[in-house]
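Appendix B. One record, verbatim.
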Amino acid sequence: MVKKILCEYCNLTFADNLSSRNLHFNSNSHKKNRRNYFSLYKDAITLFLEERQKQPCRRFRTSGQCQYGSNCNYSHYTFEQLINLINQDSITFFYIR
């Protein structure tokens, strides 16, 4: 019986051998899923710096939805939301210190 391994980012199982692991870990879908997983844990300052460099998403701005979701190359934040995000983090940082 072949031992299987579970990728927690992709929720897929595959054979536990070197060629299968390399094939999966180097796939674009795995890299995208891993990047999306870790983006959930970014601090507000990092998120602010990344999002302010992106242009606004036209689909999200007009309809409030975007088919690409977190994979979209454009920002789904308004300028006011970014300012509120950074202000909330500054207040939290102030109280923690």
